[in-house]
């Protein structure tokens, strides 16, 4: 994504693709991809949409945006704590017990947690777009005198 946000917006305008000022660069790139890949759709998405369902695809490599990952982690933790025999039959029983202990209230908390993560990422997206598009430089100045790890220790030999 080396193009500037304003260049992407200009291209979308030329292609008569509607866009909004409040969306981030990544979302603009998705609009660009939609122009290039119009017509490429999965059959299962078409079937789900024909049945009146909204298809939402999660971004790759962002398991923190998927509540089922939190549920699965909870179930695995339950099985790990309960497993004393390491026999497959016992693990199977514990797995089902772990699944049953995931209540509607836990699901609700997991979904709320994911929504909070989405909000944080949305804010960071806008921040990153602003920094990249303004070409703001981050400068870290190292002092000539640096401290060693011995300077930071609390040994009795050092006077404070």
UniProtKB/TrEMBL annotation:
InterPro entries: RNaseH_sf. Gene3D superfamilies: Ribonuclease H-like superfamily/Ribonuclease H (3.30.420.10). GO terms for molecular function: nucleic acid binding. This is Tc1-like transposase DDE domain-containing protein.
